[in-house]
Amino acid sequence: MDGNNRFSRDSWIGGALLLLSLIIAAAGVIISLRTGSSRYFLFASFPTAVLIVAGGAMIRKDYLGSGGRLLLAGGERTIEAQVLGVTRNLRTAGEKTAYYVVCRYKDPVTGKETTYSSKALDEYPGKEVIGRTVTVHIDPGEKGKYTVEIDALLEEIRKEKEAQA
């Protein structure tokens, strides 16, 4: 599927095969009911099954990535990760200190854990971020390319601090 959310040629062909399978199955049922013989239904069921498998396989290519997971439009995958902590860079003379929010995602299917870090922050976000959940946008087309959505969490913590004050 391309970035404009249009269906590929394979999806159109797959959809046509699925529609054709429905027509053949319906014809087999109708003829079997009118004649009183189940052989027409049985005769129609074999090509119907083949068309369903073939059509589904063609459509599947557009919606499933190489990992076999459903992808969002444009190929982007979104997950929720738990914040583990905050790190800072080792600055050299004249550099500003940058802080990074580090989060972890554990795949519920494979059990594999992956760690992500946010963009550089100018200020320490506070220990309140630890244990919270952030959204991570992953580009499955380019290994290692992702974005941690930290702004919403920082805003939420800022509002909580103002409410306590």
Could you walk me through the main structural features you see in this protein, from its secondary elements to its overall organization?
- The chain has 165 residues and is an alpha+beta fold.
- The protein has helices spanning 9-35, 39-63, 151-164, and strands at residues 77-88, 99-106, 113-117, 133-138, 146-149.
- Helix content is 40%, strand content 21%.
- Strand 4 and strand 5 (146-149) form a beta hairpin.
- Helix 1 (9-35) packs antiparallel against helix 2.
- The longest helix is centred in the first third of the chain and has 27 residues, at 9-35.
- Mean pLDDT is 81; it is low at 1-5 and 65-73.
TL;DR of this structure?
With 165 residues, this protein is of the alpha+beta class. The protein contains three helices and five strands; from the N terminus they run H-H-E-E-E-E-E-H.
Give the helix/strand layout.
Elements: H1 9-35, H2 39-63, E1 77-88, E2 99-106, E3 113-117, E4 133-138, E5 146-149, H3 151-164
